[in-house]
Amino acid sequence: MKRRKVKEKIGLHPVMVYLILSLIVIILSGVLSWFNVQATYNQVSSITGEYSVTTEAITSLLSLSGLKYIFTNTVSNFANFTVLSHIIIILLGIGVMEKSGFLKTLITLLTKKAKKTTVTFFLVLICLLTSIIGDLSYLIFIPLSALLFLYGKRNPRLGIITSFAALTCGSALSIFMTSVDSSLISITNLNASIVIGAYSVSSWAFLLIMAVAIITLAFLITSITENFVAKRIEKYEFPEESVEDELVLTKNKMRGLLLAGIVGFLYLIVFIYNIIPGLPFSGNLLDNSQTLYIDKLFSYESFFSNGFVFIVAVFFILLGLSYGIGAKTIKNNKDFVEGLSHSLNGMGKILVMIFAAATFISIVKQTNIGNVVVVALANVLKNVSFTGLPLILLLYVVSIIATIFLPNAVSRWTIIASTIIPAVMNAGLSPEFAQVVFRFGESVSLGLTPIFAYFIVYLAYMEKYNQSNKNIKFFKAIKMQLPYTIVSFLVFLGLIIIWYVTGLPLGINSSIAL
Fold it and tell me: In 251-311, which ranges are E strands?
């Protein structure tokens, strides 16, 4: 008897999922616009300090003007998509480090005798602490985590899943104030001043609760990775030529590491000196027109902010190049150029994925669906009669849902703060506590939304290290993040309740009570 060939189900590629989602959003915008769906909220003017009514309405793309927008702006939206330009620049540096052998030598040296759990823990902890550099952390740590696990003889996709989980769950956690925190505090102060004139939130207002959240999550994310995800992810086959029983540190490799260390140290000294204000010839990378140091670093006029991606890329290039010269793995300019392009090999499919994601995100933004949903959720907060802990927990849930539709924290807080800040203050709770709860909610669901621009980086690297003939599954990639989401939800919920019951200080000069 002839055996029938079983046709292997390939499944929908993420590109197709993004295109289908784009079509759904276009149709939905037309339907919602036809029903004149809109929502209004009170927004505090930064100029007058008074409330003004703002209306958010759906923009239909299922119309002639909508179709014109899609056809005339798709190319420019892709070209201006921040992820595209930044990932190419960063990959130039990572390519030199990888091609020269710097990363393999360094990672193998560091992980050779280390326990798997220890390596995972420090990766997670570093990812949780990198919110200070903003979205650039996704472009740095997702590729590097894949290589960390690959050279450590582990599944690189496990490293990708873990780093993305840590980066998203820690996106709103910061011991030091970030540029986003600065913007959110400005909004908080503006809305709080309606109730108490000239209200001011301290720069260290969230230090204690954030530190506890980071340490707790570091252990739990590590545990989930090692005890749950690692046992369920598919096996990774390592090429025979890449398997080494142990790393032999030759004189060339030692010379390369030493030279890379010296060059990297000198580069960092020059860089750090130029972001320190007040010293002779220092502070050249800062916007000195700003008052707060964090704003001097990350304002739109700051050279540091505008050039940070390139600064990091040059740092990576110098490390790889100096190691290559010392180890004699880079012998001429041809080797160097090949190193620059090394990480860009096979980028065709990734570029198509980024194009599909950029198109989808631009369509969602243009329809204004996210803003309308967030305003509707803010109105739920406004219309309930909750006070105390029930009000805070409702804010937590609202923040989780709102993040899925509008990942931008500043835009969400602009809408929600005008409703929740007066409510919590009238209930005897501090605006700082409301902001912490809002940020915790963001950290729970950011890793689940395809509207988040850097979600595509996660998908792209899952695809890069895909060894099967099947497409990576869009919703399975989201499913892999669910264990981390559930745990972070419970951790933040526990912290909110503990702080509310005990009245512990949130940080320096701040508490949950007004």
Answer: none
For residues 122 and 344, the answer to whether their CB atoms sit within 8 Å is: no
In sequence order, the 6+-apart residues with CB closer than 8 A to the CB of 118 are none
Number of other residues whose CB lies within 10 A of the CB of residue 123 = 23
Is residue 395 a contact partner of residue 384, using CB atoms and an 8 Å limit?
no
d(CA 350, CA 459): 9
The ranges of the chain with pLDDT < 70 are 1-11, 240-247
pTM of the predicted structure, to 2 decimals:
0.92
Provide the percentage of residues in the chain whose pLDDT is more than 70: 96
**How do residues 135-183 score in pLDDT, each as one tens digit?**
889 999 999 999 999 988 899 999 999 999 999 999 999 888 888 888 8
Token code pair at residue 450: 């395809």
Count CA atoms closer than 13 A to 134's CA, side-chain side: 21
For 56, the 3-state DSSP assignment is strand
Cα 364 to Cα 22: distance, rounded to the nearest angstrom: 8
**Per-residue burial over 59-81, b = 16 or more CB atoms within 10 Å of its CB, e = otherwise:** bbbbeeebeebbeeeeeebbeeb
Token pair recorded at residue 325: 């010269």
pLDDT of residue 2: 46
Q: Does residue 492 contact residue 510 with C-beta atoms inside 8 Å?
A: no
Residue written as token pair 């994310």: 221
Cα–Cα distances in angstroms (integers) from residue 418 to residues 96, 411, 424, in the given order: 48, 12, 11
Residue type, 182: S
What are the angstrom distances between the C-alpha of 453 and each of 136, 357, 446? Answer: 12, 8, 10
Q: Is 419 left (phi over 0), alpha (psi -120 to 50) or beta?
A: alpha
User: Exposed (0-12), middle (13-18) or buried (19+): which is 407, by Cβ within 10 Å?
Assistant: buried
Q: Phi then psi for 481, rounded to 5 degrees?
A: -90, -15
Cβ-contact 225, 117 below 8 angstroms:
no
The encoded tokens of residue 509 equal 């000069």
Please provide the DSSP assignment of 13-53 as one string. Answer: -HHHHHHHHHHHHHHHHHHHHHTT-EEEEEEE-TTT-SEEE
Q: Quote the CA–CA distance of 457 and 479 in Å, as a whole number.
A: 16
Q: Give which of 229, 461, 211 is closest to 343, Cα–Cα.
A: 461
The SS3 of residue 387 is: coil
Block residue for tokens 């739990």: 220
DSSP, collapsed to helix, strand or coil, labels residue 8 as coil
User: Are the C-beta atoms of 248 and 112 separated by less than 8 Å?
Assistant: no
Q: Which two tokens stand for residue 37?
A: 């769906």
CB 457 within 8 A of CB 142: yes
Q: Give 155-221 as a 3 state SS string.
A: CHHHHHHHHHHHHHHCCCCCCCCCHHHHHHHHHHHHHHCCCCCCCCCCCCCCHHHHHHHHHHHHHHH
Residue whose C-alpha is closest to residue 474's, from 92, 11, 119, 14? 14
